[in-house]
Design brief:
There is one protein chain. This protein is α+β, with helices and mostly antiparallel strands and 169 residues long. The protein has a domain of 111 residues. Helix content is 50%, strand content 12%. It has six helices and four strands; from the N terminus they run αααββββααα. A four-stranded antiparallel sheet has the order 1-2-3-4. α2 crosses α4. The longest helix has 35 residues. The protein starts with a helix and ends in a 12-residue tail after the last helix.
């Protein structure tokens, strides 16, 4: 049964059921309320929600594909500077770019034991703002090349940083 047919059946059940009044539970969380929206508006809201969910999945998939492509294209140079800690500290979870181009998260258990888990690019782009991830990779590469890191605004404006041979102001 598809999502649309399940929603259609749920909508039919709801329309034949007796309307429920708005009430609050003892904890203050509202219970199901009678809908004052028209059926057309409800359908439009459901379609927009489904579309937003699909777009989110597509965006994650595309970002993961682009990240994989970047890692493949620059594998040799990334291996030369790996492993690189992209985020975190010894106390906070660390994001590490490994020699094989994979990402790992190192965290500490409650007993002080270090745990190292592999993270797929699709998981990574869901957990991180992908622009921040690329910025950290860029900073690591620029540092390895002996260049200063770029301020975020300069990256967006494309004006570069002093010492960057290709930069124009």
């Amino acid at each position: 049964m598809g999502l649309r047919s399940a929603l259609g059946k749920a909508r039919k059940k709801r329309s034949t059921a007796a309307p429920k009044k708005v009430a609050a539970t003892k904890k203050g969380a509202p219970t199901r309320a009678q809908s004052t929206r028209s059926d057309a508006l409800t359908r439009s809201l459901v379609v927009a929600a489904e579309t937003a969910g699909s777009e989110r999945l597509l965006a994650v998939d595309q970002a993961a594909d682009r990240l994989n492509r970047f890692l493949r294209e620059h594998r040799a140079i990334l291996i030369s500077i790996s492993p690189v800690i992209l985020a975190g500290t010894k106390k906070a979870p660390q994001l590490i770019l490994e020699r094989d181009g994979s990402f790992r998260v190192r965290s500490t258990s409650g007993r002080g034991k270090s745990i190292l888990e592999r993270v797929r690019p699709a998981e990574l782009v869901e957990l991180w703002v992908i622009a921040d991830l690329y910025e950290r990779i860029e900073a690591a590469l620029r540092g390895a090349a002996g260049l200063a890191t770029r301020p975020t605004g300069a990256v967006v404006a494309g004006i570069g940083v002093a010492g960057d041979r290709g930069a124009k102001v």
